[in-house]
Design goal:
The chain is an alpha/beta fold. The protein has 2 domains: about 120 residues, Aspartate Aminotransferase, domain 1 (Alpha-Beta Complex); about 260 residues, Aspartate Aminotransferase, domain 2 (3-Layer(aba) Sandwich), CATH 3.40.640.10. About 35% of the residues lie in helices and about 15% in strands. The protein is built from 12 helices and 13 strands. Strands 1-7-6-5-4-2-3 form a 7-stranded mixed β-sheet, sandwiched between helices. Strands 10-11-13-12 form a 4-stranded antiparallel β-sheet, with helices on one face. The longest helix has about 40 residues. The protein is globular.
């Protein structure tokens, strides 16, 4: 303890206690080039009206995706969300709820989350679901570390996991961050020439702790080889499947063809793209992974009067915030956003989710047919089937095409070079949803047609 010295200011007193003589000494480790010198260049104080006018000006620079034909997706999708979702989720008992530690005062929220878990379990055909993760990327990373905890003791390839080829850079980056601390080695599963998992090459993954794949894959391709993968990698290796949630209204649930853990982005059910967040990740698994799974689980029981009651079970939030002793690093989740997903699923029901999936698939097919009718445009993997999105190879730069389309008032998709490092600059990823109209597709096709024409003229000159 340092004695209080009245002749020194509090700042000087603290500096002396730490062994420094000045503030410059305290921050001496910071390079001079990144230190701020002098005051910040900020405008003078403003009135409320001035602040509001400035905010309106800044916001007007943004282009809402639903204000023009939009084909941007690759993880965030512009599906229709009924107004009832927000109306119910913003009720006071939901909006003000955080973590329902005290079940005696949180039965409504706990029951709603239990219903969410039940619907996710039914959707993916696995017996256990948690109440959500931060997003799809953290869910995938947590699934790999969870599987390693379960399988590492018996694994022939200890601390080794495999991930599918061509993962988006942001997803792979999160996975690398999560696995680095545990000394987990990441290896890659190759694809065949049809854009699907190479089953012969996948034999190398047998004996590892886990394999992570996506269905549909990062190019929107429905991988018909995945149902055969579990038999190849064996029971002592976890098959982790990342899903597009809406696709499960049309495609077979991964739990029915061997998936041990299913993760994914829930955004398409419950919320719009909302400028990239907030989101909620899905996480469901078999009983084998229950004790090691991340996040929280709501359980159903009965109270002392024999009435149904709900409570957090098996693990507490504190289990996940104990630094190096933690099961995972998630200490909260996206409960309110997940609740919106649960409300949306309840409003749709099984038939409604199937209809949504069919509308997405149909819109994708119409857009795909239109774009592929253009001379010089080819499908990246010509023999593949698509859901929701597809990737084409243009005769020139995808960024150039997108810039041209933007000038025509069309958001044409995503240049994959921006998200996948190994991608060609000619690869354009196009997404269509239930909100895509025939007029939208026509605008996209005509815009690409005019760009191709101008590109051809440039090449001639």
């Amino acid at each position: 303890m340092v004695d209080h010295m009245p002749n020194l200011g509090r700042e000087a007193e603290m500096l002396q206690a730490m062994g420094f003589s000045s503030m410059d000494d305290l921050f001496s480790d910071i390079p001079e080039g990144v230190k701020r010198v002098g005051p910040l260049d900020l405008p003078p104080p403003q009135t409320e009206e001035e602040i509001w006018a400035e905010a309106q000006r800044l916001l007007s620079v943004n282009v809402p995706i639903n204000s023009r034909p939009n084909f941007l997706g690759a993880g965030l999708y512009e599906n229709f969300v009924p107004s009832m979702v927000a109306a119910m989720a913003t009720r006071g008992e939901f909006l003000t709820a955080y973590t329902p530690y005290q079940p005696e005062v949180s039965q409504g929220m706990l029951q709603a989350l239990w219903e969410f878990q039940t619907m996710i379990s039914e959707l993916v055909a696995l017996p256990v679901s948690n109440v959500s993760m931060y997003d799809a990327s953290t869910a995938a990373a947590e699934a790999l570390t969870c599987a390693t905890r379960v399988h590492n003791r018996k694994a022939e390839q200890k601390n080794v996991v495999y991930v599918t080829k061509w993962l988006p850079e942001q997803r792979l980056s999160v996975i690398e961050n999560y696995t680095a601390g545990g000394g987990i080695e990441i290896r890659t599963l190759d694809w065949n020439d049809e854009g699907m998992i190479d089953l012969v090459a996948a034999e190398a993954a047998a004996g590892s702790c886990a394999v992570y794949v996506e269905q549909p894959n990062p190019f929107g391709i429905i991988d018909e080889n995945l149902p055969k993968l579990k038999q190849i990698i064996g029971e002592n290796c976890a098959l982790i499947v990342g899903v597009n949630a809406t696709s499960l209204g049309l495609m077979e649930a991964p739990g029915n063809w061997g998936a041990d853990i299913v993760v994914g982005e829930g955004q398409a059910l419950g919320i719009g793209a909302t400028a990239g967040g907030p989101l909620y990740g899905l996480f469901a698994c078999t009983d084998k992974y229950l004790r090691k799974m991340p996040g929280r689980i709501v359980g159903k029981t009965i109270d002392e009067k024999g009435i149904d009651a709900f409570t957090l079970t098996l693990s507490t939030r504190e289990q996940h915030i104990r630094r190096h002793k933690a099961t995972s690093n998630i200490c909260s989740n996206e409960t309110l956003i997940a609740l919106m997903g649960g409300i949306h699923m309840a409003l749709l029901g099984p038939t409604g989710i199937e209809t949504l999936a069919i509308r997405n698939a149909a819109a994708c097919q119409v857009a795909r047919n239109g774009v592929l009718s253009l001379k010089g445009v080819e499908l990246l993997y010509p023999k593949s089937s698509s859901y929701n999105e597809f990737t084409v190879v243009l005769p020139g730069s995808a960024k150039s095409a997108l810039s041209h389309l933007d000038s025509l008032g069309v958001t044409g998709g995503l240049a994959l070079k921006d998200t996948i490092l190994q991608a060609s600059d000619k690869w354009l990823h196009i997404t269509a949803t239930d909100q895509t109209t025939e007029d939208d597709v026509a605008a996209l096709v005509e815009g690409l047609k005019s760009w191709i024409s101008s590109f051809a003229q440039e090449m001639e000159t």
